[in-house]
Amino acid sequence: MEEVTKKPRKKSGRPLSFDREAALERAMLVFWRYGYEAASLQELTSAMGITPPSLYAAFGDKEKLYLEAVERYSSQRCSTLHCLFDEAPTARDAIERLLQSSAVEMTCPSHPPGCLVATSATNCSASASHVQEAVSERRDNVETIIRERLEKAIADGELPADTNACVLAGFYSTVMQGMSSQARDTGGNRDRLLAIANAAMRAWPAKNH
Questions:
Q1: Mean pLDDT for each 10-residue chunk of the chain (209 residues)?
Q2: Cβ-contact 88, 97 below 8 angstroms
Q3: pLDDT at 5
Q4: Which among 118, 82, 84 has a CA at the least distance from the CA of 101?
Q5: Using CA atoms, how far apart are residues 15 and 201, in angstroms rounded to an integer?
Q6: Burial (0-12, 13-18, 19+ Cβ within 10 Å), 158
Q7: Burial, 4: exposed, middle or buried (Cβ in 10 Å; 0-12, 13-18, 19+)?
Q8: 69 and 24 in contact (C-beta within 8 Å)?
Q9: Which residues fall within 8 angstroms of residue 190, CB to CB, at 6 or more apart?
Q10: Counting Cβ atoms within 10 Å, is residue 105 exposed (0-12), middle (13-18) or buried (19+)?
């Protein structure tokens, strides 16, 4: 009886043996705490519970991992911002809630103080300039959402017609970036950040009577 020659099975890609989303979340916290360049591969893989080969297989490299973590963070933040603005009855309420919620979020004990996008790629070498540009774009996205809400307020007569929406949006974006730095410098002093938020609202343009 002739032996039947079995055809070798084609090797399929090895499935991931870990929760990719959970690993990405843990990597995001490492970048948040140490910054992009200071976060070592050992710290990342240790926090993610994987080996370097697994990191490269799942995410590409450290840079791609960081950018994916930033995109995850930014998408969640923008989604929250849209919901907050949709629920606020006025633009002033929207900005006030944004600053107050930022003060709370930046001092939440479940993650490092401050904002990932505001602080994790501020002091990078020239070789990482494209990473800084990518993070800067994420910050610009938030400022754009704020500006569009202010432009609507001007059109609706809630703000004076001569209000410069770009400048005002830039002002509140700058306040939030400063709050992030304060959160890191003070170890997450929420009362201080809330006081800054309240002070920033005094710059809200008064309606002409």
A1: 46 62 94 91 95 93 93 90 94 97 95 88 68 85 95 96 97 95 90 96 85
A2: yes
A3: 47
A4: 84
A5: 51
A6: middle
A7: exposed
A8: yes
A9: 103, 104, 107
A10: buried
